[in-house]
Amino acid sequence: MSGSAGNADGEAEAPTGSRRAIVAKRVDSGEADLAEISQLAAAAGYEVAGELTQTRTEDAAFMFGEGKVAELRDLVRRTDAEAVIVDNDVGPYQTFNIGGVLPEGVEVVDRFTLILEIFGQRANTRKAQLQVELAELRYELPRAEAKASLAKRDERPGFMGLGEYDESVERDIKRQISEIRDELESIAEKEEARREQRRDSGFELVALAGYTNAGKSTLMRRLADELAVDENDDRHRDLDTTAESQDMLFTTLGTTTRRAEMEKRDVLLTDTVGFISDLPHWLVESFESTLDSVYRADLVLLVVDASEPVAEMREKLVTSHDTLYERNEAPVVTVFNKVDRLAPGELAEKRAALSGVAPDPIAVSAKTGAGVAELRDRVEDELPDWERERLVLPVSDDAMSLVSWVHDHGYVAEETYAGDQVTVDFEAKPSIVARARAKAAEVSAPPAEESA
Ligand SMILES: Nc1nc2c(ncn2[C@@H]2O[C@H](COP(=O)(O)OP(=O)(O)OP(=O)(O)O)[C@@H](O)[C@H]2O)c(=O)[nH]1
Ligand SMILES: [Mg+2]
Fold first, then answer.
1. Count of Cβ atoms closer than 10 Å to residue 18 Cβ
2. pLDDT tens for residues 189-234?
3. What pTM value is reported for the model?
4. How far does residue 244's CA lie from ligand 2's centre (Å)?
5. What are the binding positions for GTP in this chain (predicted)?
6. Rounded CA gap, 245 and 70, in Å?
7. Phi and psi at residue 304, to the nearest 5°
8. What are the residues whose beta carbon lies below 5 Å from ligand 2 (ion)?
9. pLDDT tens per residue across span 63-94
10. Quick one: which of 97, 106, 100 has its CA closest to 79?
């Protein structure tokens, strides 16, 4: 029914053909690192045709120094690039000014626009599309004014293809934003209701979170049953049927929920969009309803790629904690993934170096499966405590259906029959134990003979 929306066989996608782009970045001090912006460019379908960096304070008009912008123009000409991707928070006027120096038709793309391009390409559900649209509009809003005055000055007619501009554009953007917010809110409410319903059915909700490309989806497949959630819970279909993995940033955009194999607990594991640094709050907020699957979980597994250098791991952990900080309600367990790539001794060193941001991490390889059994145990340990209860019931049809309900909603340690009595010794969430007691009271009650 749900046509497979993603690309099927791990074939690297080139959604828009290869557009050639220059990646550029300015830093106040030190050396500009283009690794991540280049990966983002590749994820958006660009081929990186050239690089340019500058260490200097920000130029108000051009972001880079004017001489550097001239260099950029020459590089664009030489490489025949169609776009310049700037890994800085480029203001509307700076964008306009850089564009004015570049050959006609060459686009200036900043980090956020690039990320939105990637999200736009991956958005295959109504919710994802709305979130991307919301983020685009929120990006556009402060620029609308700048464009209006630029267009009025007629310095470059049809600036960014938007033709005439007036205040009504701003009003229109605001109206669209509020409409999309309303729709997203109603989606979020439905999802919250679904989470509650799942909790009522005895499931614990565990979410995978972490920087993009940390290995969340790969770990999901390790931990989860092949059984898709909708087979357990047929009223609700989750999004994609598979959580894809690729060595690419933002492979996952939507949310996938699977039942995870645990010893005692019934766990629903959710994989979702990864975190990335230097995102403005409006962009993170636009994806709030997707991030709710993390924020509202019972436990968060914060996955980090442990094959990266300590400094990078630390930065990514800090970004992840910042993203979680405001809204997250659940306990967090840090998972050092990709330990198959570590040299002997490296794990201990990294653990020690990162103990401040990653206390007591659990080390796994989602690829080989090493450490995954320990991770399962750890998840069960960290989930909120269960209560123990023992019910003695008269054997009857009602009692048997209660016993099977208890099996479905908790962990039965022992079930014994003696004479016409059955005893179930079990553990479950406090709310489940309370419901089991109430049901037991009904089952055990003497046949209806209430006096009138
Ligand atoms: N060597 C090694 N590679 C891994 C391991 N886990 C994941 N990978 C690789 O890391 C890359 C990213 O994995 P994903 O599972 O797509 O990562 P993700 O966190 O879901 O990434 P996004 O959805 O893009 O945010 C893929 O190429 C995986 O094959 C691991 O334990 N060891
Ligand atoms: Mg993923």
1. 12
2. 999 999 999 988 889 999 999 999 999 999 999 998 654 444 333 3
3. 0.81
4. 6
5. 210-217, 271-274, 337-340, 365-367
6. 40
7. -135, 140
8. 216-217, 251-252
9. 999 999 999 999 999 999 999 999 999 988 89
10. 106
Among residues 360, 382, 404, which one ends one of the domains? 382
| Residues 245, 262 share a domain | yes
Q: Which domain holds residue 409?
A: 387-444
73 in a structural domain: yes
Confidence class of residue 449 from pLDDT cuts 50, 70 and 90?
Answer: low
Q: How far is the CA of 250 from the centre of ligand 2 (A)?
A: 7
User: Pairing mode, if any, of strands 203-210 and 256-260?
Assistant: unpaired
Task: Name residues contacting ligand 1 (CB within 6 A).
Answer: 212-218, 245-247, 249-252, 274, 337-338, 340-341, 365-367
**CB burial of residue 219 (10 Å; 0-12, 13-18, 19+):** buried
* 3-state SS assignment for residue 366: coil
ipTM over 0.90: yes
What is the side-by-side order of every strand in the sheet holding 19-27? 46-55, 19-27, 83-86, 107-110
Range 260-285 burial, b when 16+ CB lie within 10 A, else e? bebeebbbbbbbbbbbbeebeeebbb
CA gap 391, 202 in Å, rounded? 18
